[in-house]
Amino acid sequence: MRVAIVTESFIPTFNGVTTTVCQVLDRLAATGHQAIVLCPGPAPATYRGFPVQTVRGVTVGGLRLRGRTAELERHLTAFAPDVVHVASPQGLGTRGLNAADHLNIPSVAVFQTDVSGRLAHPSAKSLSRALSVAGMTLAPSSAAKQLLIDSGVPRVGHWARGVDTTVYHPNRRNSELTRELRQCLAPHGETIVGYVGRLTQDKELHRLTELADLPGVSLAVVGDGPDRGRLEQLLPRASFLGHRQGMELAGTHAAFDMFVHPGRSAMFGQTLQEAMASGVPVVAAAAGGPLDIVRPGVTGLLFDPNRCGALRESVGGLLADPEMRARMGRSARTKIEHRGWATAVDELVGRYGAVTAASYARRVA
């Protein structure tokens, strides 16, 4: 299959969109498909042997957003793809959908941004209109899928992102760097409760104050963002470790005894998958993406985000039962092992096939 990936973010910019695109390309290369990447510059000339073509645009918040449809059409015509994969359908992605529609090329839009935030924005109607031309729009969770359907987006499917089960692994807990981090965070044998993610108000990290005075708890916050200063004042005893990625992040996940995700707005929860792959039980708000990921009582706990003190109760219950934490951690690893990127991308290729088959059926009807 020939796949054209239109993405507003690519190397050297690293974020969730770039990571997913690279994982898709890695698997496409390994399984004999052909691909091209259309993205803003600067970018490498090739990736995994696939050509990378830069598209002109303007920069907004570090991302080039306004790609020109004529330029995209020229590249798509030259490559002649079977399907256009639009990573994060906004800005350049929207123009990629329009270009594919104009050229009668089947398209798949992969929604990776904050679905609830985008659909609450005044531009939600224009987003729905843009997605209406996609052969299929893939949502990362059941909650995100329903939000898209309720917003009038047609042909919505489900595709959950994968996780690197080799990088994120329980064995990393035995590494020297992870042992050193645990000694730093818990010098007296405290139970390390960790959070990983952006430090913004929508993450509802003020809820972590419920854990601030739990005896025997060492609270670790990984990430950065505009809310960091306020949170450092709210949580003076917590360890703020800043932004981490790659092997350093994997080692940090493995250092945790418990992972907490306090917010209600997450439409997926990649950090939850990374924690579970590391053999760490998860305590998350019973809302959005975590409902698909966490199996209560087996891989972690879901708490009622509308009840004050519910997070503290859930964490406190696991804090008092190390054996249950260990059992949940093992179950979490077992559950997430089948969500490796190879499996996830093979599922995505299946979606490509469904869209191209449907497009062919419409043309010959």
TrEMBL record:
Pfam families: Glyco_transf_4 (PF13439), Glycos_transf_1 (PF00534). Residues 185-334 form the Glycosyl transferase family domain. InterPro entries: Glyco_trans_1, Glyco_trans_4-like_N, Glycosyltransferase_grp1. Keywords: Glycosyltransferase, Transferase. GO terms for molecular function: hexosyltransferase activity. GO terms for biological process: carbohydrate derivative biosynthetic process. The keyword Transmembrane helix does not apply. Residues 15-166 form the Glycosyltransferase subfamily 4-like N-terminal domain. It comes from the Bacteria. The keyword Cell membrane does not apply. This is D-inositol 3-phosphate glycosyltransferase. It comes from Flexivirga endophytica. The gene is mgtA.
